[in-house]
């Protein structure tokens, strides 16, 4: 039993998700992600059960823990009430705290989650704004969405769900600052702010500088594909 496993088992999500695994494989059989990715909930549980820090570190640096879609099918079918989805969340937090997430392409996408969903929460109180869903990034949404994107302010006015008014209807309302201060305090106390900062620090360590992190970010804004950024071997 090593440092990583000791820290992992202190996480409440790990405690709630890991009971006595039978290694039956039902979780993998029902997992939608396992059908399409190199991901097996059964493998994740086995690695955690090993209590081997080397295996856990390898898992934390891999794409595997980022393939889970958090549907919790594993929990509903497990005969012992385990939840690999909960264990995965604990592993993701551990990966971010140690900066291991930056070693995998899927893990590095945490920068996008932090700068879009995380910062939207701290600024506006919800994760996604219409302006985040650009037609260039989501061409599959078609011409109707492109029209809405370009005329959203006037259309929402017409629908009587205006943008950026305090406590107005709809997802573009402005939440009162008093409520936002409470939300930010919750993020601070629960450690979410620390995790968000760890994402920035982990990416800076991996890429070599803040400037390079910004290049990575701009590349994603322009191409919507993190694979288009080439990680330099000497970083």
Question: What does it look like?
Answer:
This is 4Fe-4S dicluster domain-containing protein. Keywords: 4Fe-4S, Iron, Iron-sulfur, Metal-binding, Oxidoreductase. With 235 residues, the protein is an all-alpha fold. It is built from 14 helices and no strands. Helix 10 (110-124) crosses helix 12 (177-189) and helix 10 (110-124) packs antiparallel against helix 13. The longest helix is centred in the middle third of the chain and has 18 residues, at 142-159. The two termini are 31 Å apart. The mean pLDDT is 93.
Overall geometric form:
globular
Query: Would you tell me the overall average pLDDT?
Result: 93
**Unreliable segments (pLDDT under 50, ≥5 consecutive)?**
none
- SSE order, as H and E? HHHHHHHHHHHHHH
Protein name: 4Fe-4S dicluster domain-containing protein
InterPro entries: 4Fe4S_Fe-S-bd, 4Fe4S_Fe_S_CS, HdrC_iron-sulfur_subunit, Helical_ferredxn
Organism: Floridaenema evergladense BLCC-F167
Keywords: 4Fe-4S, Iron, Iron-sulfur, Metal-binding, Oxidoreductase
Summary tags:
mainly alpha; iron
Protein topology:
Elements: H1 3-10, H2 12-17, H3 26-30, H4 32-36, H5 41-50, H6 53-60, H7 73-77, H8 84-98, H9 105-108, H10 110-124, H11 142-159, H12 177-189, H13 192-207, H14 210-223
Helix pairs in contact: 5-8, 8-13, 10-12, 10-13, 13-14
């Amino acid at each position: 039993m090593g440092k990583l496993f000791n820290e992992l088992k202190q996480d409440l999500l790990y405690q709630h998700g890991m009971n006595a695994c039978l290694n039956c494989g039902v979780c993998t059989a029902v997992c939608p992600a396992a059908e399409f990715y190199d991901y097996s909930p059964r493998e994740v549980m086995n690695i955690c059960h090993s209590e081997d820090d080397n295996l856990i570190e390898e898992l934390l640096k891999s794409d595997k823990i980022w393939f889970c879609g958090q549907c919790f099918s594993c929990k509903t079918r497990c005969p012992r009430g385990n939840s690999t989805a909960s264990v995965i969340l604990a592993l993701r937090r551990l990966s971010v705290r140690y900066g291991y997430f930056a070693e995998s392409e899927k893990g590095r996408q945490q920068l996008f989650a932090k700068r879009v969903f995380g910062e939207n929460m701290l600024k506006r109180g919800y994760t996604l704004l219409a302006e985040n869903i650009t037609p260039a990034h989501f061409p599959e949404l078609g011409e109707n969405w492109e029209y809405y994107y370009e005329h959203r302010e006037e259309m929402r006015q017409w629908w009587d769900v205006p943008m950026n008014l305090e406590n107005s209807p709809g997802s573009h309302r402005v939440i009162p600052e008093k409520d936002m201060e409470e939300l930010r305090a919750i993020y601070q106390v629960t450690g979410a702010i620390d995790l968000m900062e760890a994402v920035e620090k982990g990416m800076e360590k991996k890429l070599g500088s803040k400037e390079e992190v910004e290049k990575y970010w701009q590349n994603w804004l322009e191409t919507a594909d993190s694979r288009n950024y080439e990680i330099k071997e000497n970083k």
